[in-house]
Amino acid sequence: MNHPATTADRAMLLAVARSVPDPELPVLTLGDLGVIRDLRLVGDASVEVDLTPTYTGCPAMAVIADDVRDALRQAGADQVRIRTVLAPAWTTDWMSEAGRRKLREYGIAPPGPAAHVAGGPVKLAFSVRCPHCGSPDTREVSHFGSTPCKALWTCRSCAEPFDSFKAI
Amino acid sequence: MSGVRTLPPLAAYSLALGDDALILAQRLGEWVAHAPQIEEDVALANIALDLLGQARTLLGYAAAVEGRGRDEDDLAYLRDDRDFRNVQLVEIPNGDFAVTMARQLVFSAYQYELYTALGSSGDATLAGLAGKAVKEVAYHRDHATQWVLRLGDGTEVSHARMQAGLDQVWPYAAELFDPVDPASRLPGVAADPATLRPAWEQYVTSVLNEGTLTKPEPRWRSRGGRDGLHTEHLGHLLAEMQHLHRSHPGATW
Fold first, then answer.
1. Residue B4 pLDDT more than 80?
2. Could you tell me the residue range of the domain that residue A117 belongs to?
3. Residue B116 above 60 pLDDT?
């Protein structure tokens, strides 16, 4: 940007950062996931982004930071600084409605409400609907799946296995 | 590498917690392609990855607080065994699946209480990490609990092996609650390990009871990991973990 930064620039850059696709789940944007927490303009052409990890060890975080940096540079920011913020801790409750719908269409069951999990034992008694056939007659095969954020489930109705986004 | 003993208390505390997570992550990684089911390969790798993420935050913070230009990689790869501050529980070999599940129950139940307590730490970094990690550890603890119940209350053979796993691991449990020097010098910031024990005891006892297992009463107990005294197993683990970094200093992907 070769002009003084404005509020409109901030809104535009925030929209750009939020529209970056997640590298592991490309149907979701970072905005859908809720991991872009803030964006500030520092001086004329410098941008600082607050990014929160989904899981502390999520290997996609480095790629996400690189992708955000590239997207913001293409949108005119000269310098981009990514800050990792841990608090408040990311929760699947921050996932957008559009994100949940897109996950379901992609074949992944979206997360249920996380409130009952916080600080208590993991109870998975609520029904997870099969994203393929919609049946609630499903069972968990394993708490852990192909990425830190997902669990392995299978459907008793259509017999298809599927991933379920873990509520945390 | 120079003196862990001269670290500021906050750095030393972060290092001790980070070393626990790092060494257990390395151990659990050994299960990949060797677990009894492919789902367990995946589960143990996921748990290891969560622990590695916690370790990176804690070692990175220890290095930053120390302020001598070291980073998380220097701390993970360039220290020798006597400079590691983890408890011996996390370095002992995996044993069979029941031994690993016994250790997972002991350690994740401890870490759950630790991170719950640190959630209200006066240190923003420790509190932030704890608030995040406790959600991950809730899954680890539940995973271990399900297996201990299933094996303990399963067949005669699975029960005997689960009990043997608990007997093997239990002598290393008490060390988790030993006083840690840096913790006592960080009031309002660190969690006093002894205060975590009652809730831990209550949780593991209820799981053992439900799983028809007997709480072991070991005749000896480990000590000294927090002072750099380790079993012979840690050196072998570090040789594997550190070899690439030490053979090719500064290499990047």
1. no
2. 95-165
3. yes
**Mutate which of B14, B46, B116 to disrupt the A interface (most A C-beta within 10 Å)?**
B46
The number of distinct structural domains making up chain A is 2
Same domain, residue pair A77 and A136:
no
Chain B closest-CA separation from residue A29 CA (Å): 22
* Cα B127 versus chain centre, distance: 18
Tens of pLDDT, residues A18-47: 999 999 889 999 999 999 999 999 887 789
Query: From B127, which residue of chain A is nearest by alpha-carbon distance?
Result: A87
Q: Tell which CATH architecture fits domain B4-247.
A: Up-down Bundle (1.20)
A76 touches chain B (CB under 8 A): no
Domain locations along chain B: 4-247
DSSP B26: H
Task: Please report, as a single letter, which amino acid is at residue B74.
Answer: D
Residues of B in contact with A57 (CB under 8 A): 49-54, 56
pLDDT tens digit string along B61-113? 999 999 999 999 999 999 999 999 999 999 999 999 999 999 999 999 999 99
Provide the pairing of β-strand A150-155 with A46-51. unpaired
Q: In 3-state terms, what secondary structure has residue B82?
A: helix
The helix (run of H) or strand (run of E) holding residue B19 is helix B9-29
**Closest residue, chain B, to A145 (C-alpha):** B42
Q: How far is A36 from chain B (nearest CA, A)?
A: 16
pLDDT digits (tens, 9 = 90+) for B21-36: 999 999 999 999 999 9
CA distance B220 to chain A (A): 32
Nearest CA among B23, B24, B9, B203 for reference residue B105:
B203
Same domain, A69 and A112: no
Question: How many residue contacts between A and B have a Cβ separation below 8 Å?
Answer: 85
